[in-house]
Write a structure and sequence with these properties.
Low-confidence stretches of chain A: none
Number of strands of chain B: 11
Low-confidence stretches of chain B: none
Radius of gyration of chain B: 13 Å
Mean pLDDT of chain B: 91
Number of helices of chain B: 0
Helix content of chain A: under 10%
Shape of chain B: globular
Helix content of chain B: under 10%
Number of strands of chain A: 12
Largest sheet of chain B: 7 strands, mixed
Oligomer: heterodimer
Structural class of chain B: mainly beta
Distance between the termini of chain B: 37 Å
Order of helices and strands of chain B: EEEEEEEEEEE
Structural class of chain A: mainly beta
Number of helices of chain A: 0
Radius of gyration of chain A: 13 Å
Strand content of chain B: over 45%
Strand content of chain A: over 45%
Mean pLDDT of chain A: 91
Largest interface: A-B, 25 and 32 residues
Largest sheet of chain A: 6 strands, mixed
Chain lengths: 113, 114
């Protein structure tokens, strides 16, 4: 079945460092791909998404490109801030209304000043 | 911005007891979901609900689980007889007419079964 694999955390960075969180997926068909973020004490929030191959999702300085050839959707940010400290979840949707999202385990990012 | 509300934020119960986790989805949303995350593991899908019936459920969602939309605003998850392995963070989510493309999640209920 469809699945998502994320790099294990935690990831610890200094402010202004470059961030990459790896995500690969296995899916039949043509899924949409997402990154969700969970800040402490809050629910998961959609960070960005891409719906087809070569699409780039971006938001708040974060980017991820849907790479069909490598089945990847790595999350990147050029310069992280302390406020980016959170848990990041990669997810896919098989693209049918109401169908469940499939999540990875989540990667904890901790940014220090 | 509208949000999904879950209560309580923490629930402690004894093994074998029934628990009801409550959620108020965003008011004009049509699809409702429950997910859970056992500590250190993936966020797992439990069930989706549309048009007053279950539209999809996972293997986890066995006869011990049930969902209900008792009125126009609440969406509940009931666990009939809790087990130790039911201890997890339970997330409610809802989405609009587009379905699963964008889910809005609540902040979760941490269930601890002793």
């Amino acid at each position: 079945g469809d699945s998502v694999t994320q790099m294990e955390g935690p990831v610890t960075l200094s402010e202004e460092a470059f961030l990459t969180i790896n995500c690969t997926y296995t899916a039949t068909g043509y899924p949409s791909l997402f990154w969700y973020v969970q800040y402490p004490g809050e629910g998961l929030q959609l960070l960005l998404k891409a719906t087809k191959a070569d699409d780039k999702g971006s938001n708040k300085g974060f980017e991820a490109t849907y790479r069909k050839e490598t089945t990847s959707f790595h999350l990147e940010k050029g310069s992280v801030q302390v406020s980016d400290s959170a848990v990041y979840f990669c997810a896919l949707s098989p693209n049918q209304a109401g169908t469940a999202l499939i999540f990875g385990k989540g990667t904890t990012l901790s940014v220090s000043s | 911005e509208p949000e999904v509300t879950q209560t309580p934020s923490h629930q402690v119960t004894q093994m074998g007891q029934e628990v009801i986790l409550r959620c108020v989805p965003i008011s004009n949303h049509l699809y409702f979901y429950w997910y859970r995350q056992i500590l250190g593991q993936k966020v797992e899908f439990l069930v989706s609900f549309y048009n007053n019936e279950i539209s999809e459920k996972s293997e986890i969602f066995d006869d011990q689980f049930s969902v209900e939309r008792p009125d126009g605003s609440n969406f509940t998850l009931k666990i009939r007889s809790t087990k130790l392995e039911d201890s997890a963070m339970y997330f409610c989510a809802s989405s609009g007419p587009d379905g699963g493309e964008k889910l809005f999640f609540g902040s979760g209920t941490q269930l601890s079964v002793l």
